[in-house]
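Notebook entry, structure prediction.
Reason for the run: the old model in the group folder had no record of what sequence produced it. Starting over properly, with the input documented here first.
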Amino acid sequence: MPIITLPFAYLERLVGAERSVILDRVPMIGADIERVEEDHADIEFFPDRPDLFSAEGVARAMRGFLGIETGLRAYSVRPSGIAFTVDPALAGIRPFLGSAVIRDVSLGEEAIESLMGLQEALHWAVGRGRAKVAIGVHDLDTVEPPFRYFAAPRDRSFVPLDFDREMTMEEILVEHPKGRDYAHLVERFARFPLIVDARDRVLSFPPVINGELTRVTTETQNILLDTTGTDAKAVMTAVNIICTALAETGAAIESVTIDGREVPTLAPAERIVSVAECSDLLGIRLSPGEMSELLWRMRFGAEPMGDDRVRVQVPCYRADILHDWDVFEDVAIAYGYENFEACLPSTFTIAREHPIAVIEGAVRSILVGLGYLEMMPFTLTSEPVLFDKMQRPRSSAALRVLHPISEEQTVVRTDILPLLLEMLQLNRHRELPQRLFAVGDVVAGTATYQKVAATSIHPGADFSEAYATTDALCRELSLPYTVAESEDPAFIDGRRGNILVGCRIVGVFGEIHPAVLNAFELEHPVAALELDLTVVPGYPAPPGTP
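New structure, fully documented this time:
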């Protein structure tokens, strides 16, 4: 989940309350305070609330929650007179475009950091790593409308952000850090998406990199926003969230004409909900007026309609409101979870911990005791991560997703170790050593079982460390094992070993191969292990086992 840095001085100015009040109440809107420093706090928000991924969005929510400013915020949108055209040839590449003009912005260092942080958080939460949505923010005063979004030849050149020379788009994918990170999203296409102005100057090569021409600085006064992607709704969600966040700082929002259609409108959606259904679900008695007041605190528009209905206006930035029950959840938040009366359930049963949970709990205790930090990587991943980067052959036992939402989530994981290496890649800018582990379900064919994997990265990580961790883990699990030479290509020859229980290979450990390290952009040695937990004493036998 995204962790958002909130500078106290900036946040207090936007909210109109002291930091002590904000920090005391912000967990109650669905957040976890990670750390509090002298001048800022790092706060983790749930991924279903991307509107809270900036100081401006948090301030808007907290003003309502604290009763400082309640009800629906109306956002005025006037036409900018600026137009975009979209090339039909993009239909099979990256067909959807959203845009807006944001004028009279006041971008101090804190505001720029907030905007850039919001952009990257949206790339993760809404954009699926830019595959679904990519966002470009440009200094409007450096370019000349109208603008054109089209499929350009791969040898088209421009100066990319943070470089001082022209490069072709093919060169960018090889030489620019962002190009290498996101090449997989476009490299298979014969032409690449490009945005240019009336003078044919490049603004952006989505979803990879902006042009240096439109760099946003503290001197920027007017912004052109572009969002491109493969999902029209997600594209406009990103537009709405960024526009409304900047509107909270006093900026003016203007619409852009895209092939004759004006976007954005920033208009709220409307739904009529039942007070009785909400009361039954939450276990509290509410009147239409009381429910409306609670929704005002969550920045909805709400108006009683008779004895059992409330007309609700949902803000354009609340992409998480998909069902009436989502509205009821906000009623509960506004009511205050601390105000619900605790009571015993009407049915009472005696439970016991599942044997698999007992084993997983033991694994966690052992590895935490050995100095490892637990991670919970996604269950869905991709074959390039599971197999290609690990130098392992693709497995026919991998369970594939019939209609994947992105190229990063096409199969159910068969192993956990590749996902830990991916996590090390994401955290390669953090201090060393890093020792991570994960335990949980994997799937082979239609069979679900459990594995544990652990990794240790630092300059001295080696085979001996992997062997020592494996031995300690197996000994504490009372698992008798032997070691044999391994041929797993993910590990260095001569520095790898198979874990055997009886004659069955149940795991592997050793030092990760340099080619695998390069594939995950890791610069230091990694000692690692992975173990099948079905062989641990106490693991339940499958049905029908004699």
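Summary: Residues 109-125 form the longest helix (17 residues).
The old model has been moved to the deprecated folder.
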